[in-house]
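Protein in question kept underneath.
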Amino acid sequence: MKIGIVLYPTFGGSGVVATELGKALAKKGHEIHFISYNHPVRLDHFQPNIRYHEVRPFNYPLFDYQPYELALTSKLVDVTRYEGLDLLHVHYAIPHASSAYFAQQILKTHGLYIPFITTLHGTDITLVGRHPAFEPVITFSINNSDAVTVVSQSLKDDTLKHFAIDREIQVIPNFVEHSNYCVEPKESDIKRKKDIAPNGEYIISHISNFRKVKRLQDVVSIFDLIRKKIPAKLILAGDGPERFAAEQQCKELGICADVEFVGNVQSADEILCISDLFLLPSETESFGLAALEALASGVPVISSNSGGLPEVNAQGISGFLSKVGDVEDMAKNALTILSSAESLEKFSQQAYEHSKKFTLEAILPQYEALYEKVLKKKRENLSV
């Protein structure tokens, strides 16, 4: 199959999942065309069966904001026509789904039909998409997609609750390719861990885009409570609008020497490989890919119980869940896991075993089956 994948190329979960999906499909012999305004951060150059097409919005003084949606639509038309794409798979509804619909209608005038699948990832439904400025377009685009998937049952429930959807929505959860994550640290990882925690302190980590919904200050508060009981270090990987407030909080608490802000990282593995515990106290997560990546690295997770997180983090098995904002309970649960080497080892093994429910081998065939279903429908329509 020749598949166009439309995504945001940033460090967010939707872009990571879309990139890893495309890479896995390419390894199976499908021809993958990534379409975005920048090269995806998880995509290496010069990979077999993979092409990247850059969307360049037109910059003109009349426009206060570049009309990206129109530029994307034109690029989808162009790539579909000249690369002979079989279907489009757009990740994150805004504005990818509506652009795919517009491209589909334009291509019909050229005697071509390109079906498109929309995968909803979270804030395109729970936050941005519900805004009155976007809701009618999102509802229309979902209802006119050839197929729709969501990454969790929680997100499916939210979609049906907040939008007038009159079509089937399929749950296909996110996945990880376990070979990308280390359970047994290499010698270089052990040295790096020793450099960060020279006295054998526990290393606690958090990886996100530092938006308000991630509750970064809760991460710092939880760590502060842990640190008062046991020696520990905190690694904060990522960047975003909440970074400054978190840095100020560390200064006020007097814990800066034990907290390291490392900025955005190309691969979560370099942080998770040296971590003992992962914190994700988010206001909401449609799925919680960062939590799953931690579990795949054998790192137990302390998280909120919001959104799709209970579908990823198994209470008392791969970690613990608490109410949003309950930093005391999260710290207590963290200390339970870190109470002894035996306890940490038990939770680490359980975390890794639980992550196997979300393997690439389990999830990829679900997407391929959906592609075949959509293409079969396309062939039937063309034969009528």
In short: The radius of gyration is 22 Å. The domain at 178-358 is CATH 3.40.50.2000 (Rossmann fold).
